[in-house]
Design a protein that fits this description.
alpha+beta; four-stranded antiparallel β-sheet; 2 helices; 25% helix
């Protein structure tokens, strides 16, 4: 479950979260970190965009757009935080 969720969140960060425009690399860095505390494993993906991730209903005919629904279904909790330095951090937690 955690590998699938990380794949979805990293893909979202690369596709939607990089703070750059066409032809401008800007702050295109995406970072992944893991932490374990009190029986929970949490992954955190950081990107340069302040755009909030939004869980939306999937279009049945769309080929993509279900990433956060996968995260919602597999993680015990998830959310995001705006960073003071710009960008955001999206996290998902799992029981171990």
């Amino acid at each position: 479950d955690s590998v699938m969720v990380v794949s979805e969140l990293v893909t979202n960060a690369i596709r939607h979260g990089r703070a750059c425009s066409e032809g401008d690399a800007g702050d295109a860095r995406v970072e992944l970190s893991w932490w374990y505390q009190a029986g929970r494993l949490t992954c955190t993906i950081t990107d340069g965009s302040v755009k909030q991730p939004v869980l939306e209903p999937a279009d049945r005919d769309a080929e993509s757009g279900r990433g956060l629904q996968v995260v919602q279904a597999l993680a015990i909790d998830w959310g995001w935080t705006a960073l003071r330095t710009g960008g955001k951090s999206v996290w998902a937690a799992f029981e171990s």
